[in-house]
Automatic annotation (TrEMBL):
The entry's keywords: Membrane, NADP, Oxidoreductase, Transmembrane, Transmembrane helix
Entry annotated with the keyword Secreted: no
Family affiliation: Belongs to the short-chain dehydrogenases/reductases (SDR) family.
Name of the protein in its database record: NAD(P)-binding protein
MF terms in GO: oxidoreductase activity
Amino acid sequence: MVLDTQTLPYLNPEKDRRTVLITAGTSGVGFFTVLQLHLHGYVVYLAGRSKNRATKAIERLRCELAAIVEGYSLEQRAKRCLGELHYLEMDLARLSSVLETVAAYQQLEENLNILINNAGVLVLPFTVTEDGFELQLQTSYIAPFLLTIKLLPMLERTSYYHPEAGPARVIYVSSVIHRMVVSQFNLSTSLNYYPNFIFTWYRFAVAKTAGIHFMKMLALRNPRILCVSVLPGNVMNTDHFSYLTRLPIIGFIFWCIFQICSYCFGITSQEGANPVANCCMSTSITTTKDNGSHFLSSNVKNPSIIANNMDYAAQTWIWTIHQLGKRKIDIS
Ligand SMILES: NC(=O)c1ccc[n+]([C@@H]2O[C@H](COP(=O)([O-])OP(=O)(O)OC[C@H]3O[C@@H](n4cnc5c(N)ncnc54)[C@H](OP(=O)(O)O)[C@@H]3O)[C@@H](O)[C@H]2O)c1
């Protein structure tokens, strides 16, 4: 089902300033999520590792926005206000950078209405970050965990002092690949096995499963904040698969497979962003009914059995707290 984002509420940021922090809004699904939020009057902070890419993305966003607004009727022009776009530097592969970004954001804004953990890297060679975590696990799970926990007091405060804006929201962009994980995993295992181009998918799947666990635990512990995970769908035309398609010889085979998948059941980045935008803005998604849920398009759908298991989710949570503690990162 194609989601119609025009049915989502439009805000006037001068009267109702609602802020969003999104990781990686410069390309793919993130880019079009930012476009939708901006069109609906949100103040959006794009947190990414390259100022240059962000500047270009903001320029491109402004062009796309101008073209969309051009097509508005007079009535739509009168009623719909654009939001704001800002950039914050953040490299999820360095936890110190996450902490710096949190501090920078807190200097700039008093409130945070929506946090979107969108960034992720897919199927890379086995790499360990300077923080001692596998790169995909850190980018898709550990760093989003730290970012969210550090911004939690702000999200709580926003929900408390601005009830008219509805609950603050944490959105985690997941992937259907999490279903590759069919038994509980040990996050301390490196999963550095040969051949990499197979096991790298599994490392990614583990990271995305941990991300879903995180949303479930966060929802349980913070019932006044709306925490959900969402699947964008099969967006084959993003940079997400570029490591595989650039491999010598086998890369061409991957490229052919992705082209066929894209032709048969692929969607555009724009379509992939709509479910994310819907989780951010829909007033029919509520804490009482939907907290901890997993969304596909606008529907709640069960994630894998492993991702849905609350005992495993608790183990993932405890492991992460323990690991951050070992690195002397205060998350109290
Ligand atoms: N494409 C799909 O079919 C699909 C399906 C399901 C879920 N998803 C999920 O959707 C999300 C967005 O993916 P996409 O398809 O839109 O691909 P994408 O265009 O490659 O987006 C990934 C983003 O993550 C950012 N990123 C990577 N490492 C980072 C780091 N260390 N610090 C900060 N940002 C970093 C990248 O920023 P740079 O510009 O700096 O590289 C890029 O903007 C991902 O979480 C992905 O797993 C995608």
